[in-house]
Amino acid sequence: MKYSLIYSFFLGALLISGCRKEDNPKVPDFQKVPVPQITLAEGSGEKIPVSDPSTYSATVVVDNYFKYGEMPKQLDLLVIKNGEFGNPKTLQAGITTFPTNVTVTGTQLVELFGTIAEGDEFTIGADITTLNGTKYSAFPTDGGISYAPGVFNMPGSSPELILVGANICFFDPATFGGGDYEVVLDEWNDYAAGSAIPVTKIDDTHYSFVYAADNANPIIMAINPDDNSITVDPVMYGDYGGAQVTAKSVEGSEIDACNGTFKLILNHNAPDFGGDLGDYAITLKKL
């Protein structure tokens, strides 16, 4: 078997080495083309509130994926709505410095495409002009593809960016006053669904509650009004039978500003119980 494998390897190598482009003119030339990297700056969200698009503003960062590869002569930042390749609009042309920040607003998108409805998608891409003057379109209308499929699978690659029209309610501190909140869900099982617990309003963006633990300490929720997310810094919130338990928020913690609801996902950790206990959600709604 060993010799058979070695023979097969050398036979394959001979076949490959004997195949030249001049022997098969159908083999295409491969071009090295810069790959744009289009992302949102920290603090910018991808959801455009359909009730009032004028309140939306985002910073789009335009860069190159290969930082030390060949740079493009220029990138032209374009946007299409709902996959309509035949109707691209220019956000900013002639970008030659990288990274470059481009501001995109809801008002601008309405001016370009008209009314924004829930579920509308705005895809942002970049036409690439290489140093030799060859142009590659972000949204080709001739049936071609904008990027090879593998480009999207490269680690951290983002040649396109999608913004979405969404039904968003804006955070209003008056809606989230202190007082009793209904426990809609408690996966940690300290509270029964339908019971009421007090939530303390510390200031307009900070609120706290306690679990039914011994020696309970407040769990402080910090609200980010820009994206309605909730952050809880690691806190030892109490003990159960003498075993101290800490918690911190994980991705997915947010407020529902339309319904006055805190939706919090906490990772619980207790060294006496083996460390990481997992993630558990608790949902509290203003009564």
Account of the protein in words:
- This protein has 287 residues and is mostly beta strands.
- The chain is 10% helix and 42% strand.
- It contains three helices and 19 strands.
- The strands form three sheets. Strands 10, 11, 12, 13, 14, 15, 16, 17, 18 and 19 form a ten-stranded antiparallel β-sheet that branches. Strands 2, 4, 5, 7, 8 and 9 form a six-stranded mixed β-sheet that branches. The chain has a three-stranded antiparallel β-sheet with strand order 1-3-6.
- The model is unreliable at 1-21 (pLDDT under 50).
Kindly estimate the percentage of residues that lie in beta strands according to DSSP: 35-45%
The tally of strands reads 19
Main CATH class of the largest domain: Mainly Beta
CATH architecture of the largest domain: Sandwich
How many domains in all? 2
Enumerate how many helices there are, as a single number. Answer: 3
SSE run: HEEEEEEHEEHEEEEEEEEEEE
